[in-house]
Amino acid sequence: MTAMIFKLRGEPDQRLDLSALTPKRLAGLDEAAVAALPVGTGKAVLRAGDAFRVTMGDPADIRISGGCARLDGVGAGLDRGRITLEGEAGAYAGRAMSGGELRIEGNAGPFAGLSMSGGLLRITGNAGDFLGAAATGEMTGMRGGTIAVTGRAGQRAGDRMRRGLIAIGGAAGDFPASRMIAGTVVILGDCGRLPGYLMKRGTVLLGGKASAWNPTFLESGTAALTVLRLLTRELKPLLPATAPLAAFEGPVRRYAGDMAALGKGEIIQPAT
Amino acid sequence: MSELKPKTGLWGRLTGRGAAEPETKPADPDVGLVRGGVQVDETFAEAFPMSGTALIITAPSIEWARIAATTMTGFATSVIGCGCEAGIDRELGPAETPDGRPGVRVLVFAMSPADLEKHTINRVGQCVLTCPGTACYSGLASDETIKLGANLRYFGDGHQSSKVIGGKRYWRVPVMEGEFVCEATVGMTTEAVGGGNLLILGRTAAETLAATEAAVKAMRAVPDTVLPFPGGIVRSGSKVGSKYKFMIASTNEAYCPTLRAISNSKLDPRVGSVLEIVIDGLSADSVANSMRTGLAALTDIGLKGGVIGVSAGNYGGKLGPHHFHLKELMS
Q1: What pTM was computed for the model?
Q2: A65-104 residues touching B, CB cutoff 8 A
Q3: Contact A226/B165, CB-based, under 8 Å?
């Protein structure tokens, strides 16, 4: 069965909430019911059929054609199947997703993968601030699953992250892995100020340099860590083939911290 | 050796009611259960259910992986005296291991999942965790698991940390050399089979050993099986019980060439030495494959290579539900 296709008719005049367009929500609906799903967030009622030209197909394989920074909540609550967005996404892509795969073939706005607990979120462009972070008022950020960003990520990636893997192929903004509880954040490029700020546990792999280093991280020697060989094998299919992962399979420098918090976390950089 | 006349021991010799003259005529080649002049007994190997697991041990070099695997599977010949049975299944190339380093796959067998967990943890803790550069992973995909790293982690004394990668949890235990990585749980099966066996009845000790070594070499290529005894060979096959009450097993005098005159020997007079190969496998099929391979290797060597006969040990069908009939394995 071919994919169910939502082709964007044009740039909407209000922000859209696409959290209704998930395999679970679309299962069993006929074309009229799909077209009637509300997607608007403004005063004027906007339905899926108004914003998209819908081609019925397999609801477990959804394809949204034509991206736009106003498309919020793409794949929010996704728990199965696959959603592909051919273009840019707005905020909250993959928010609280627990399974399945969300692929964004372009840039994603802020709060992508917010509080997600499972599944795979792939962003082939750049990601905004608070990637895989905690929503306001929530105690923990990402609690499972994998986020792979080919390009850059904004500030506070992995804020309050509890479990899971965030892989960023390029650079990251300030405070990556801030207040991290556990999990793994991989940044193959440089990052902004104070990586791992107040992190308790967890691992940050930093391929490049930080613009400012936190003094409460303590150098803990150089070693070749076997666990990184497992991690790089997991990362290979998620990142471009040119990603410099091999650097983590040799000697690495380990910094323990943040000693201002629990201090059981680590930042790891290639030794060479 | 069913069609060969058994001797009746010392009593028979003294009373003259035993076989007056030993049968010395060689078996006809390739007739009935004869292959290459080797008489294959119409009997069966009796094996029993076990719990089994497979581990992958990796290291910076294959030499260190071998050292860890050999040490870990040492003194694991029989559950009777060792608590578990273990051996090396095969060596793995870097492309076959989770961390891309050379490795060795070992199998461990015990009589229950609880025993299996206990002995596996002890052995990995003493022989792999201690070995430079090694890591240990599950080598068997299964819904049933036993704990491994989940218990060994406590060696880290609070400094251990876990990492979930690809849906599997690994424990990182800081050690003086660096870090020991071990998968939290490893797959196990209760469909494993222990005690498959072949008895090789040879003309001389040297010929019997050479033929058995050749069979072992062929059998070691069969996946999911191990031959837990030294070099894959047992020279001291046992029977259940003993004249001594404190012994639960003792020498199998019926197959001891030096006791042929004073015991109910089952040996052809031409037999000068007997060796046994014991096989444990993760499934009944794997044990059968191993026995089939060994049997073929032995009959290929044949009478000209000093193999007089091949038999198998059983307990009358009362010990275990798995009966590997040599006749079926020949066909």
Answers
A1: 0.89
A2: none
A3: no
